[in-house]
Amino acid sequence: MTKEYEYILVGSGVAATMLTQSLLETTPSASILILEAGPRIELRDRRSWWDLLVKKDETPYKHTYDVEGGESTFTADKWGFYESRVRAYGGSTMHWGGWSLRYLPEDFRCFTEVGKGADWPFGYDELEPWYSAAEVALSVGGVAEEPGPPRRAPYPLPAFPWTAHEALLADAFEKHGLVPGHMPLARNARCMTTGTCKYCPIGARYTATDHLDELVATPAHSGLDIRTNMTVLNVLADRKHAYGVHVLDGNTKKEETLQGNRIVICAGAYESPKLLLRSISPDWPNGLGNNSDQVGRYLVTHTMLRVRGEAKSNSEGWFQEYDFPTLMSRSWDCAERARAGKGKVFLYNNRALPHTDIAALFIDGATRDKVNSEVFGAREAGLDAFIEEYGEPHNRITNGTGEGRFGLPKTVVEFRRGEGVNEAANNTLDEMQQILVRAGYERHSDPKLMRQIQTPRGDHSSGTCRMGAEVSTSVVDRNLCVHGVDNLYVCSNAVLPNAAAVNPTLTLAALSLRLGAHLADTRP
Amino acid sequence: MSDFKDEIIGRSALSAPDREISPEDMSILWQLFEHIEKLWFPDLPGAAMSIKPQWLDYMRATVTQSPSLLGEYESAARVFIEVSSSSPDCLDELMFSRVVHEETVSTRLDHAKYFVLNPFIRVFAALAGFKAFGGRNFNGYMGGSRFGDTAPVRVGGRV
Fold first, then answer.
1. Residues of A with Cβ-Cβ distance to B118 under 8 angstroms
2. Tens of pLDDT along A479-519?
3. Domain extents for chain B?
């Protein structure tokens, strides 16, 4: 007889992990099956770490990235896929930067405040306790006293100090009327600032991989089962009830059906809607939960803005000594600015500048004198920012024809940048350049590097299974339950009604913990 | 008879024989690593020795885990012996300052630079060499905890 799981979770990233933790806290023996389409990739493997160091950007999860133009295509504006998500056990936490920012209360009232996007079906106060719990789970360090969303608990860990160069930029922020702050970062107390955060040698940066391993290793969690290389082909459901998933076992190349009482799709902003759209049945001819044709729509991401400046001398010999920025500002992250057409913007230091690749110079035959002149000669600095975009129904994710990696259907993105975004972005770039001037930098001599509005990318994509009260304009309700299906949930960036201006992971982690509590409270 | 170092062997990394690296070859490779300090970092005396445990870890990882670089290490050791005996005054120029990129790898001398010395230079720069330029931390270096008395990075007037 086929085993029936209490919960089947599709995907193994931060959402599935936080949800699992929450469910097991209430019921340690809960029967939970996690299905991951990608492989397991070992963490803290010495060879992989050395390869990252000596062959720049060589990570052991590189092969899980989307192949641009092959398995992932766009039909409107150019869209970047490569390096934007990891398809492996632990999901994109394998490569994330750990930036852990809360949305602002006004972000939960986006449409009311700005007249674009959508309001959440509940407010910031309802999520606030879960934000605190998520910060503990992710080991976030920050400065609670700095301006930002209200909080009832301190950060679990202190922030990392600004570098000397960031202190210089912080002064320039203030001269420009901005309040500088410390980036909240998910690095536990073991962090030794090794600077190879893409593949931490000591497990100091949060990964869902480690977190899930800990949960599995706990003897009381006898019902937790995680299977990798398992691609969910479709969700099986009748008119109001999901009862299982049809999967392709990549290890045996055989298909099988797995039964579950509650099914939660934790597969990111791409795969979550794609799975619903291909789960077609007589009761759901347009895809599961898609009777209102909302699944896959309202795709948003963050457009990254980038400026660089140059100084004639680097007499201090500064180079970036962390692998993350610790300086940021949320002064431009306000609805008032968005209403004025200037965009809601999150500003931070370019994590890689100033920089001299000392080893590359020696490798290319430079003398020590030549390297000295490079290090202490001209200096580059940069500022980056995210600008919020708003969900539009024509911006959409769908399944492509044919199969991509891991047995997943190909991905098609249709995205057109919103009206007014380019103008707001250009105005913001002007201001960012002014800040660099205040810090002593001249405009960069290379016009391509001087200011950039980067191609929209999948990294922070969200909104494709929008949360809302109305069936006609959303896919899931306030408890992340798919409208019309009483035991099917989506728990991923896909449910976010708006992107805000900051990284979405902490908000997703908080939502996942909140969903876990809801499912425990309503356990049959 | 042509020199061993000039033998054209193509761009791909040499296959690794099924044996352990010999103590003699390890000793030669350590000399090569130490030479980076002598050549470019005379202001950091003892720096190579101070990071020998990490270098040994690198060597262990690259010969015991796939793809093994043992074939490259054995070849580079022979190239070093040959260059040291035939043109000792040209050692720096021939082996260290030589510019070899992926697309120009051809001879055993090229292989020694590209597959062995270039990574050695990266390891040295990341774990010790950066300090010669005043840095406290660098990508790859264990800069330290945020909880220590001294910040893991150079800080300014405000932190």
1. 54, 363
2. 999 999 999 999 999 999 999 999 999 999 999 999 999 99
3. 2-147
Q: What is the chain A residue with the closest CA to B62?
A: A47
Q: What is the Cα–Cα distance from A438 to B132, expressed in whole angstroms?
A: 30
Q: Using one digit for the tens of pLDDT, what is the confidence trace for A345-361? A: 999 999 999 999 999 99
Does A194 contact B at CB distance below 8 Å?
A: yes
Q: What is the DSSP letter of B96?
A: I
Sheet holding A396-403: strands in order across?
Answer: A72-74, A409-414, A396-403
Under an 8 A CB cutoff, do A193 and B144 touch?
yes
At A216, the amino acid letter reads V
- Rounded to a whole number of angstroms, the distance from the CA of B100 to the nearest CA of chain A is 8
Q: How far is CA A320 from CA A263, A359, B122, in A?
A: 45, 15, 17
Give chain B's residues under pLDDT 50. Answer: none
Provide the pLDDT for residue A1. Answer: 46
pLDDT at residue A2, as a whole number: 63
Cβ pair A195:B138 closer than 8 A: yes
Q: Between the CA of residue A436 and those of A110, A176, A328, what are the distances in Å? A: 31, 10, 14
* CB spacing of A195 vs B146 below 8 angstroms: no
Chain centroid to CA B5: how far? 18
Give the list of residues 6+ apart from residue A351 with CB closer than 8 angstroms, or none.
Answer: A97, A320, A322, A323, A324, A325
Q: In whole angstroms, what is the distance from residue A14 CA to residue A138 CA?
A: 10
**Can you tell me the ipTM of this complex?**
0.97
From chain A, the residues in CB contact with B147 under 8 A are 158, 189
Whether pTM > 0.80 for this model: the answer is yes
Tokens 């398995």 belong to residue: A71
Judge contact between A212 and A17, C-beta under 8 A.
yes
Contact, A344 vs A332, CB < 8 A?
yes
Give the minimum alpha-carbon distance from A322 to chain B in angstroms, rounded to a whole number.
7
What distance in Å separates the CA atoms of residue A459 and residue A92, rounded to the nearest whole number?
A: 9
